Amino acid sequence: MQKVSLVQMDNSTIIIEEMEAEDWDEVRDIYIEGIQTGNATFDTEAPTWDEWHRGHLNDCRLVVRENGTVIGWAALSPISKKTAYQGAAEVSIYLSQKSVGKGLGSLLLREIINESEQKGFWTLQAGIFPENKTSIHLHEKYGFEKVGVRKRIGKLNGVWRDVVLLERRSTNVGVD
Fold first, then answer.
1. Which of 127, 134, 133 shows the shortest CA–CA distance to 161?
2. Are 46 and 35 spatial neighbours (Cβ–Cβ below 8 Å)?
3. CB neighbours of 48 closer than 8 A, spacing ≥ 6?
4. Using CA atoms, how far apart are residues 43 and 103, in angstroms rounded to an integer?
5. pTM flag (> 0.90)
6. Quick one: which of 164, 155, 90, 154 has its CA closest to 121?
7. pLDDT in tens, the chain (176 residues)
8. How far, in Å, CA of 138 to CA of 168, rounded?
9. What angle do CA 97, 116, 72 make, to 5 degrees?
10. What φ, ψ does residue 49 adopt, rounded to 5°?
11. H or E element, residue 155
């Protein structure tokens, strides 16, 4: 397993590294926490590892560990099968509720951006419920701009929900 980043924070060792299949149980638990907030995803139950694995790119899958325990993750999903979009992906980032407010979202988002650029991605996009102001703010902090609002794009638990579409264009990749 390749370490991406190592930092010391408040007597804790924080490591960001590539996600492995063995991390799935902890990743899934964090995803379930996100589902339970009602403001993180349209999913109402967590996928299986195989479903999740098929829906995400093999590159740019990261976990953040605090003292060996997975407390957050980020991954990219393709936005299209068309060759022209091969450098554009959707980013997902989730933190366990007990790790919110420690600055780990910033560390993780910065790392997935760096990793994505190393892998040749020029555009990252994120779809975030407007009620999730913390996530919108985090993405804007790292150069994501609001492209628009997808009005009543889908129902969650019988309620129509909007999604704010944010996009970040790399200043290093795809600049030709």
1. 127
2. yes
3. none
4. 26
5. yes
6. 90
7. 455 666 666 677 899 999 999 999 999 999 999 999 999 999 999 999 999 999 999 999 999 999 899 999 999 999 999 999 999 999 999 999 998 888 999 999 999 999 999 999 999 999 999 999 999 999 999 999 999 999 999 999 999 999 999 999 999 999 98
8. 12
9. 15
10. -55, -45
11. strand 145-156
Whole-angstrom distance, CA of residue 98 vs CA of residue 92: 18
| The amino acid at 157 | N
**Which residue(s) pair with 5 in the sheet?**
16
Q: CA 72, CA 75: separation in Å to the nearest integer?
A: 11
The answer to whether the beta carbons of residues 166 and 147 sit under 8 Å apart is yes
DSSP per position, 90-140: EEEEEE-GGGTTSSHHHHHHHHHHHHHHHTT--EEEEEE-TT-HHHHHHHH
Tokens of 6: 């190592």
Say how far apart CA 37 and CA 90 lie, in whole Å: 21
Give the whole-angstrom CA distance, residue 166 versus residue 41: 15
Q: Which candidate, 125, 131, 174, places its Cα nearest to that of 148?
A: 125
Nearest to residue 129, comparing CAs of 85, 89, 159? 159
What span, in angstroms and rounded, lies between the C-alpha atoms of 16 and 44? Answer: 27
